[in-house]
Structures are given as C-alpha cells and as structure tokens.
Write a structure and sequence with these properties.
CATH topology: Lp2179-like fold
CATH architecture: 2-Layer Sandwich
CATH class: Alpha Beta
Shape: globular
Helix content: 10-25%
Number of strands: 7
Order of helices and strands: EEHEEEEHE
Radius of gyration: 13 Å
CATH superfamily: Lp2179-like
Distance between the termini: 20 Å
Oligomer: single chain
C-alpha cells in the first residue's frame, strides 16, 4: 500500500487527511513511534483490553515528510487487512475506530475530507 494524501480503512465511509498543523511532536504525543526509515507508525488494538495480543489492530503509518500516510485495520499479526464494516456484529470495533479517529481529529492530527 502506497502513501496517499487522503485515506481510510477498508470498508469505512469517512475519508481522512493529515491536518496541515500536524508536526513531529504531534505524532509522538499521540502515540506514534519513529521507525528506522524515519516514518511514524501507530499500532493500536481495537479490542477491549489494550494488552490483548489477539483481535484486530488499527495501523497508521505517516511518511517522514508528514504530508502523506496509509492506514488499515489488520489481523492480530498485522499481515492481512480486514473489513470490519461488512459485518453488523463488529459494531463495537467500528465505534472504537471512529472514537480513535475523532480523538486524533480533536488533537489536530487528522481532519475529515
């Protein structure tokens, strides 16, 4: 998956872009860690317990220039993207995803397109 200026996860209707005021420290303050390549990455579990090694994970990678990003919801091992929006039984995970993204929006990291 390539870095894009706008993006969303598989199946979601809302499209996001990085806020113009997003900076390196904004990413770090929101839990992103710097990778060896200089990009910033966040992997956050969508299950009820944050320590859980199982379940789906939200994975967001922001390019080092803080202009482009990619995001997906993956399986626990992070190898396969999944669509949590096709099954009504996944309502809690959908709500958690939107809750996390709304938090990033309120902190000046993302904005809705």
């Amino acid at each position: 998956m390539a870095f894009e200026t706008t993006g969303t996860v598989l199946g979601a209707e809302t499209v996001y872009r990085l806020a113009p005021e997003a900076k390196r420290y904004t990413l770090r303050d929101n839990g992103f860690t710097e990778t060896n390549g200089g990009n910033f990455q966040l992997i956050r579990g969508l299950e009820a317990t944050p320590q859980s090694k199982e379940g789906f994970k939200l994975k967001i990678t922001v390019a080092k220039d803080i202009q482009t990003f990619k995001m997906s919801i993956t399986t626990a091992n992070g190898l396969k993207a999944v669509n949590i929006f096709k099954d009504p039984k996944q309502k809690m995970l959908q709500d958690k995803f939107y809750f996390l993204m709304d938090g990033f929006i309120s902190r000046g990291l993302f904005e809705k397109v």
